[in-house]
C-alpha cells in the first residue's frame, strides 16, 4: 500500500528527516510515536506532498506508483487522506459545501455520516471557525468519511478532544480504517501518530515505530513500545535499533 525508501525531507535548508524506510501493507495500521519536534508531523506532511516539505532524496511509493513528485490532489485521488494535528480554519468555505466538493461519488448519501459525527448543525458554518477542539476533530473525521481514502494518516487524533468525544473519535477512526473484528473487509491502511496510545483501545494496530531526531529508532509491537516509553522514557529507544 505505502512504501518509503530512504526518505530524506527538508524544510527550507534544514533536513528534518534523515532516511526513513517504511512498508505498510494493505489492511495494516501502523503507529508512530516519539518526542515533540522529532519529525512525526513532517513525515505525514511529506507523504501527503505539501510544498514546504521537500523530498531531497528517496522515494514515496503508493500502490506501486511513485508519487514522490506528484501534487497533493493526485495523491488524494490515489486514496491518501490526512487529518492534521492542528486543522486550519477556512473562512468563506462552509462545511456543507466542502463535503459536496470532496465527495467522490455524488450519488452517495452522506447524511448518515453527518448524523453519525453529530455535525448536522455545522453545515452552514465556515470550516473550523469558532469550533471547539472536539468539534474540529469531528468535522475532520467527517470530511475523511466523505472523501473515503484507503490510506489514512492521523496526526494525534486524541489531542484537544474531551472525554465525551474520545469514544466517538475512536469508534469513528476504527470505522474509517475498517480495523476492527466486526468489519469483515479490512481493506484500508493507516499511519497514526499518538502520544497517549488511547487510540489503541479502539484499533487493531499492527506495527509501531519510534521517531527520534528525524530517524526511526525502534520498531515492533506498538503496545510493547508504548510500555517501554512509559516505563523508561524515549532514551531507551535510542538503544533499541532492534525489534522490540
Ligand atoms: P513532531 O510532529 O514530531 O512534534 P514536527 O515534524 O512538527 O515534529 O517538527 C520537526 C522539526 O521541524 C521541528 O524542529 C520543527 O520546528 C521543524 N518544523 C516543522 N514545521 C516547520 C515549518 N513549517 N518551518 C520550519 N520548521 C518546521
Ligand atoms: Mg540516506
Ligand atoms: Mg507533530
From TrEMBL:
The keyword ATP-binding applies. It holds the Pfam family ABC_tran. CDD domains: ABC_FeS_Assembly. GO terms for molecular function: ATP binding; ATP hydrolysis activity. Residues 2-238 form the ABC transporter domain. Keywords: ATP-binding, Nucleotide-binding. PANTHER family: ABC TRANSPORTER I FAMILY MEMBER 6, CHLOROPLASTIC. This is ABC transporter ATP-binding protein. The lineage of its organism: Archaea, Methanobacteriati, Methanobacteriota, Stenosarchaea group, Methanomicrobia.
Amino acid at each position: 500500500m505505502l512504501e518509503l525508501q530512504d526518505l530524506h525531507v527538508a524544510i527550507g535548508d534544514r533536513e528534518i528527516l534523515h532516511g526513513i524506510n517504511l512498508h505498510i501493507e494493505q489492511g495494516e495500521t501502523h503507529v508512530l510515536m516519539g518526542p515533540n519536534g522529532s519529525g512525526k508531523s513532517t513525515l505525514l506532511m511529506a507523504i501527503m506532498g505539501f510544498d514546504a516539505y521537500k523530498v531531497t532524496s528517496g522515494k514515496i511509493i503508493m500502490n506501486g506508483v511513485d508519487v514522490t513528485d506528484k501534487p497533493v490532489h493526485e495523491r488524494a485521488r490515489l486514496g491518501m487522506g490526512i487529518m492534521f494535528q492542528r486543522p486550519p480554519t477556512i473562512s468563506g468555505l462552509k462545511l456543507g459545501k466542502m463535503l459536496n466538493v470532496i465527495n467522490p461519488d455524488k450519488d452517495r448519501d452522506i447524511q448518515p455520516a453527518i448524523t453519525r459525527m453529530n455535525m448536522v448543525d455545522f453545515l452552514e458554518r465556515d470550516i473550523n471557525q469558532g469550533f471547539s477542539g472536539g468539534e474540529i476533530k469531528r468535522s475532520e473525521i467527517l470530511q475523511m468519511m466523505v472523501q473515503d481514502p484507503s490510506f489514512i494518516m492521523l496526526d494525534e487524533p486524541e489531542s484537544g478532544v474531551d472525554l465525551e468525544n474520545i469514544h466517538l473519535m475512536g469508534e469513528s477512526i476504527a470505522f474509517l480504517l475498517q480495523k476492527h473484528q466486526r468489519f469483515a473487509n479490512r481493506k484500508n491502511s493507516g499511519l497514526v501518530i499518538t502520544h497517549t496510545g488511547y487510540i489503541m483501545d479502539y484499533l487493531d494496530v499492527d506495527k509501531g515505530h519510534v521517531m527520534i531526531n528525524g530517524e526511526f529508532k525502534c520498531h515492533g509491537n506498538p503496545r510493547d513500545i508504548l510500555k517501554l516509553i512509559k516505563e523508561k522514557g524515549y532514551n531507551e529507544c535510542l538503544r533499541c535499533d532492534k525489534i522490540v
